[in-house]
Every structure is written in C-alpha cells, then in structure tokens.
Amino acid sequence: MIKLLLHSWLSLLPSPDGVLQQQLGLSQMLQSLKKRYRVLKMKFRTLKLFKRRRDARRIKQTTDKAVQALIIGLALVLLLLVGCSYRMVPNETKIEYGTTETDSKNNKLQQKQSITQSWKWVKE
C-alpha cells in the first residue's frame, strides 16, 4: 500500500525535463516583462520631461505678457503725466522749391517741392 501511494505520488511529480522547460518559459516571460517595464519607465520619464518643458513655456509666456502689460501701463502713465503739463506746438516750417536735371542726354528738368515742419514741447 505504501509502495502504491509512493508510486502514485511520484507519477504526479513533473519530470526534470518538464521542470526545466517551465523554468525556461518563466525566465523568458520575466525577461519580456523586464523589457516592457524599461520601455514604460522610459516613456514615463519622457512624458514627465515634456510636461516640465510645457510648464516652463507657460510660465515664460505668462511672465512675458505680464512684463509687456507693465511696460504699456508705465508708458501710458508717463504719457498722461507729461501730456497734462506739456503740449506740442509747431516750431519751424520750411517750404522749398527747386529744379534738378534728371537726364543729361535729353536735358529734362524735374521740379522739386518739399515742406518740412518741426515740433517742440511747450510747458503750459
């Protein structure tokens, strides 16, 4: 009876070749899982890097817009302060007439006319 139980128990155990095949299959599965893990880890790191870059770009754009708004605001305040106490008036006006020769072969003359005006700030 003991021999029969021992024999039936030994028949249920896998053969050494079967154990080696299972170990080989498990090691191959472990290697493929390690490769997938490395790929996923690299993708995760890349996504984190892209997110950091995107966030830095947003911060820079926000800062640029804030600086631009500040400069425009200061320019308007300065313009209002200067504009309230000063005004621009014409200073000098020049009108010039003349003729110049444009082509020496045909002896054509061209008339020139120009008006130049300068302005200055006057305190009110």
Describe the structure.
It is a single chain. The chain is an alpha+beta fold and 124 residues long. Helices cover 65% and strands 27% of the residues. A two-stranded antiparallel sheet has the order 1-2. Strand 1 and strand 2 form a beta hairpin. The longest helix has 70 residues. It is elongated. The termini are far apart. The relative contact order is 0.07.
Summarize the topology:
Elements: H1 2-12, H2 16-85, E1 86-103, E2 108-123
Antiparallel strand pairs: 1-2
Task: Label this structure with key terms.
2 helices, 65% helix, elongated, two-stranded antiparallel ribbon, 2 strands, 124 residues, single chain, alpha+beta
The average pLDDT is 81
Q: Strand content of the residues, in percent?
A: 25-35%
Computed Rg:
45 Å
Helix content: 55-70%
The total count of helices amounts to 2
Report the uncertain regions: none
Largest sheet: 2 strands, antiparallel
Spatial strand sequence of the major β-sheet: 1-2
Q: How does the overall form come out from the CA principal axes?
A: elongated
Helix-strand makeup class: alpha+beta
Q: Would you list the SSEs in sequence order as H and E? A: HHEE
Total number of strands = 2
Distance between the termini: 127 Å
